[in-house]
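A favour, since you know our structure tokens better than I do. It will help me judge whether the discrete encoding reads sensibly. The space below this message is yours for that.
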Amino acid sequence: TWGCSRMSNSVLLLGPFHSNLVRYSVLPGLIQYEPEIEDEVERFWAQVKQRSPKAHDGQVWGLRNYYVRNNELWLELQESTYRYSMCTHFSDLSLRLQPHQRTNATGTCAVTVTSDHRIVLGKRSPTLAVCPSMWHFAPAGTVDQCNVLNVIQQEMKEELDLDWNSVVTNCSCVGLVDTGDQQGHKPELVWFLTLSLSSDTLQQHLKQVNDEEHSEWLFLQSEELPNFLANSEHKFVDLCRDTLQIVHDRW
């Protein structure tokens, strides 16, 4: 059981919601931007392509609205692309934009807990462009299709090489969290997962996984969290630190 007795400034909306009660609707067309933003995006993307010719302008889904109705969490999503997400959240332009002017490209991650009640944390590779060498949840990723549950299921396969239906015994949605300045205030849909695997079994499994996104794995007990979070030598993705503080009280 998890929950919290206080609301963090980073929390947009707090559950829990059963995974079957997380719904989405798709707004028609692509997100429309003001002409000035369009011009900035084109200049920004030209610079990105110059530095990284293989950069791919893939599909992302922006969160346009969210609400609770009949105990269901509803997400209104609209399509955009990676170039708009990067420019409106990570460039100098993003600092001048109001929230409604950004893509609000939705991320997703999971507080994953083993059968022996240890939380799974991965240290992001130092070669990653965003938040390198920082501790974060696994799995995690960007919502690149409108079915948000499918996204976290696919990320579990890609990052942990685990089949969702074989190892996940319980899944609920913590809620929506603001990623803060570190990630351009992107909204993040956070899940809480329990696995049928013990930490020892999962650790042995991950040693065999060819995962370029993580350089190290950690399995923490609840009582170890406060000291680990307080240690300044441990660098966290802000979203991860905030969410751990939210769920710790009743985890």
Q: What stands out?
A: Residues 1-8 have pLDDT under 50 and may be disordered.
